[in-house]
Design a protein that fits this description.
Length: 395
C-alpha cells in the first residue's frame, strides 16, 4: 500500500479505522471508514471527534466520493480526508480541490504510476491551505482584493472577465460569491456565479451590462490591471450535492444564468456521476450565444475533461427574438417535447433525470412549475432531490 500526498509517496502511520456503524469509544479521537453513499446527517454531530476519514472509491469512474469530500468540508470538517481505491494520478489534482489530503493506492498501481506521475499537479491540499499564511491579496477583513487579468466583451450588452485567485479561496462548482468594486470609499457588491472550474488558478465571471445598474455601469469599464473585491464566503444551490445520482443531468440556462453551468461542465465529477449532460442556453439574439458556443468548444478541447465532455456533453442554444438555429422558448420546447426530439434523446424521466435551472426569474418560476407537475422533487444540500434552481436569484 502507498500513501500519496502533495509531497509524493510517504510512509503511512498505522491507523485503526472504525466502520461508521461500529461502537465509537467514549472519549478517544478516532478514524473512520465511510462508504461514498453514507448519510452524513447520522454522524454530523460527531465529526469533531474524528481526526481522519477514509472514503472508499469502488472505481475510478465513481465520483460520489468527491462529492462526499466536498460535503464534509462544507459542513466544517477540518480533519484529514483520505481517498482509498483505484484513483489514478490524473484525478489527484481534482481530489485535492475537493478537500482530500491524501490518496491510498495499492502497490500494483504505485508501480504502474510512480511518484513522479502524482507530483506534477501544482495544487495545495486542504490542510496546507488552512495553515498557510495569507497571500498579499488578502486583507484582515472578510474580503479579497483581486486583479483583473483578462476582459472580453460580447457586443454591447455582455462581457466576461478573469481575475487572480487567492490561494485559500475555495468553492464548489456552481456556487456564487458577492463580487464588486470599491471606489472612493464606496463598496458595491452583487451576487455573481463563478464561471471557472473549482480547480482553476484564476476566477472567471460573466456579466450583463445593465445601463442603470449601480455596479455594472462601472464594472463594464474594467480593464486588465484593475482591482475587484470578493467576499470570502461562497454559497449556492446549483452544486452536485443537491441532486440525487441519475443517468442524465439537464442544465437549463437563460442569459448570464449559464455562468454556474460553465463551472459545472468543467468538473470531472459531473461526467462520472451522469452518463449524459445536456446544457441548454436561451437568449434573445443569436450573438448572445457566442459565450456559450465558445465555452462548449473550449471544454471539449480541454486537456483535463475534454475527452469526457466530447463523449457526454450535449449543447443546444436557442433564441427568442431572432431567427437562429432554434428560434423558440425553452419552456415551450420542454412541455411540447420538441427539446428531446430535436436532440434525438428519450423523453424526460423523473426517475433517472436530474435538472438544474438558472436564469431570469420568470423563466425559472415557469420551469419550477413544469418540473414539479412532471413529478420532479425539489433538492437541497440536506435533502437532495431531482431538480434545483438558484434560489438567491429567484426566491
Amino acid at each position: 500500500m502507498a500513501l500519496v500526498t502533495e509531497q509524493g509517496f510517504v510512509p503511512s502511520a498505522p491507523i485503526e479505522f472504525l466502520n461508521v456503524d461500529d461502537a465509537w469509544p467514549a472519549d478517544d479521537s478516532i478514524a473512520i471508514d465511510l462508504a461514498n453513499d453514507v448519510n452524513l446527517e447520522s454522524i454530523e454531530d460527531k465529526l469533531n471527534r474524528v481526526h481522519t476519514i477514509r472514503i472508499d472509491f469502488p472505481s475510478s469512474a465513481d465520483g460520489r466520493g468527491f462529492s462526499l469530500a466536498k460535503a464534509l468540508r462544507h459542513k466544517g470538517y477540518k480533519g484529514r480526508l483520505r481517498a482509498v481505491g483505484p484513483l489514478i494520478s490524473d484525478q489527484f489534482r481534482y481530489a485535492l480541490t475537493c478537500g482530500f489530503d491524501e490518496v491510498e493506492i495499492n502497490d500494483e498501481l504505485a508501480a504502474r504510476q510512480p511518484e513522479s506521475h502524482w507530483k506534477d499537479f501544482g495544487q495545495s491540499s486542504y490542510a496546507n491551505k488552512l495553515s498557510s499564511p495569507l497571500a498579499p491579496s488578502e486583507r484582515s477583513d472578510d474580503l479579497y482584493y483581486e486583479q483583473v487579468t483578462e476582459v472580453q466583451h460580447y457586443g454591447d450588452d455582455l462581457f466576461r472577465f478573469k481575475t487572480t485567485r487567492p490561494d485559500s479561496f475555495r468553492f464548489d462548482a456552481g456556487e456564487f460569491v458577492m463580487m464588486g468594486l470599491e471606489t472612493r470609499g464606496t463598496r458595491i457588491l452583487r451576487a455573481y456565479s463563478i464561471a471557472s472550474a473549482s480547480y482553476d488558478e484564476s476566477l472567471e465571471f460573466y456579466s450583463i451590462k445593465v445601463p442603470d445598474g449601480e455596479l455594472t455601469k462601472k464594472l463594464k469599464w474594467i480593464k486588465v490591471g484593475d482591482t475587484i473585491v470578493l467576499k470570502k464566503k461562497t454559497t449556492g444551490s446549483l452544486i452536485l450535492g443537491t441532486v440525487n445520482p441519475g443517468k442524465r443531468l439537464f442544465l437549463h440556462s437563460t442569459g448570464t444564468g449559464i455562468a454556474p453551468f460553465a463551472s459545472l461542465i468543467k468538473e470531472p465529477a459531473v461526467y462520472e456521476q451522469f452518463e449524459q449532460v445536456i446544457l441548454t442556453h436561451t437568449c434573445r439574439f443569436n450573438n448572445e450565444l457566442d459565450y456559450s458556443r465558445e465555452l462548449v468548444e473550449a471544454v471539449k478541447a480541454d486537456e483535463y475533461v475534454g475527452e469526457l465532455a466530447s463523449a457526454q456533453l450535449v449543447f443546444r442554444g436557442s433564441t427568442t427574438r431572432e431567427p437562429g438555429v432554434t428560434n423558440s422558448r425553452i419552456t415551450h420546447d420542454i412541455t411540447s417535447g420538441e427539446l428531446y426530439t430535436d436532440l434525438g434523446i428519450a423523453p424526460l424521466n423523473p426517475e433517472s433525470d436530474r435538472i438544474m435551472i438558472c436564469g431570469s426569474k420568470g423563466v425559472t418560476v415557469d420551469m419550477k412549475a413544469i418540473f414539479a407537475e412532471a413529478g420532479f422533487t425539489q433538492g437541497s444540500l440536506n435533502r437532495p432531490g431531482s431538480f434545483v434552481w438558484e434560489r438567491a436569484f429567484v426566491d
